[in-house]
From TrEMBL:
Gene3D superfamilies referenced in this protein's UniProt entry, alphabetically: Ribonuclease Z/Hydroxyacylglutathione hydrolase-like
InterPro entries: ComA-like_MBL, Competence_DNA_uptake, Metallo-B-lactamas, RibonucZ/Hydroxyglut_hydro
Domain of life: Bacteria
Native source organism of the sequence: [Clostridium] cellulosi
Name under which the protein is recorded: Metallo-beta-lactamase domain-containing protein
Signal sequence segment: none
SMART domains: Lactamase_B (SM00849)
Length: 396
């Protein structure tokens, strides 16, 4: 009987000790658990034995009170300090999503995963209104060298930036957008965290009022650890913004004759950062624009949505592993834009990709040949302005 009593005391004392440690790690909502230190001490057989030697005997009523009191205190503290859940959970889940090394298009380079939901202090309200009659859509395919960046002046008065090239182009992108008269970007889409897509985005986030930010969620093994990626997450967090998960089925804008929807990624464990790319379909009136990021054949084959479009931003700078024959036939674009650096070491765009675009009769525009290219549409007709100013690299 004595052995059983000792075992019960040891067990209860240890449990109370564990509860005390839990309270210490979960402040302030679980601070009440710290009071379990009292029964942890009073029930400890070693402490009781020492107390008995000093002729200090712990009464049964004292022991019971020592157990009940912490329970009451814990409940009170839980009511006063409710547990925080999603409020601070965005960048900590690390955009669980995003991606692994940040170098360039085929190199490896992507808060609170994707974090995908952080505190909303300066997350400026981005309520979309329907476009006015005959309002114009402008899509700027920015010449950022070997990288991607598209700035959209939407017909409802809002703006969107898809990617921002390498870090050295960030200041130039900011100057270009501000030169158009904008101090706010309503939607930022980081298609995936390769350096040639998100490198300049930190400068953008720091320079504008931002509405919403979207980034894909990746598996933990693909989550980037690069400085470029970490800098971007820090900029987002410091501005009090939250990250929304970019994935198939997400509607970014849907108002009147304008809609922008994500049709990829459709998976969460690719082992290839490019396949996590957010793919967007923009429709304005009767005109459709498709933005592929660096999505390759794997992602293309997973897309179930209707991909028929008038204009396509070709995936992965025109590599041989993107713009598959069957996929481009489904798109059947009139125009194809390839964002690529002149004389790049990757051989982009490849002859295979150009041949597949030619087979569907697409008119190809390349930023290495024309510089920044601007498409304008009223929802029925498209016009193209070539040879616009290119985005310069930052001075060394």
């Amino acid at each position: 009987m004595k052995i059983l009593k000792s075992a019960v005391l040891w067990f209860t004392s240890i449990i109370c000790g564990i509860l005390t440690l839990t309270g210490l790690c979960s402040m302030p909502s679980s601070a009440g658990l710290l009071s379990f230190i009292i029964p942890a001490i009073l029930l400890n057989p070693v402490i009781r034995k020492l107390a008995a030697k000093k002729k200090f005997y712990i009464k049964k009523s004292t022991t019971i009170a020592a157990v009940i009191a912490p329970l009451i205190i814990t409940i009170v503290f839980a009511c006063i300090f409710p547990a925080q859940t999603d409020k601070e959970n965005t960048l900590t889940t690390k955009t669980s999503s995003a991606i692994k090394s940040a170098t360039s298009s085929s190199e490896t380079s992507s808060s609170s995963a994707p974090a995908q939901s952080s505190s909303q202090t300066t997350d400026t309200a981005t309520e979309s209104s329907a476009p006015a009659s005959n309002a114009k859509l402008k899509v700027h395919y920015l010449d950022v060298g070997q990288g991607d960046s598209e700035f959209l002046e939407l017909p409802n008065g809002q703006t969107m930036l898809i990617d921002a090239g390498v870090q050295e182009r960030g200041a130039g992108i900011v100057s270009y957008i501000k030169g158009l008269g904008y101090n706010k970007i309503d939607y930022i889409i980081c298609t995936h965290p390769h350096a040639d897509h998100i490198g300049g985005m930190t400068e953008v986030v720091n320079s504008f009022a931002i509405g919403k930010i979207y980034m894909p969620r990746t598996s933990s093994s693909d989550t980037p650890t690069t400085k470029v990626y970490k800098n971007l997450l820090s900029a987002i967090k410091n501005k009090g913004l939250k990250i929304n998960t970019a994935k198939s089925g997400v509607t970014v804008v849907d108002t009147g004759s304008l809609s922008i929807k994500m049709i990829a990624p459709n998976g969460t464990n690719y082992g290839d950062l490019n396949q996590y790319s957010a793919v967007l379909m923009l429709q304005y009136g009767n005109i459709k624009f498709l933005f592929m990021g660096d999505a390759g054949n794997v992602s293309e084959n997973e897309i179930t949505a209707n991909v028929k479009a008038d204009v396509i931003k070709v995936g992965h700078h025109g590599s041989k592993t993107s713009t598959g024959a069957s996929f481009i036939k489904k798109v059947s674009p009139k125009y194809a834009i390839i964002e690529v650096g002149k004389g790049n070491s990757y051989g982009h765009p490849t002859a295979q990709c150009l041949k597949r675009l030619q087979s569907v009769g697409a008119k190809v525009y390349r930023t290495d040949e024309y510089g920044t290219i601007i498409f304008t549409s009223d929802g029925n007709v498209i016009t193209v302005n070539k040879n616009a100013s290119s985005i310069k690299e930052n001075a060394p």
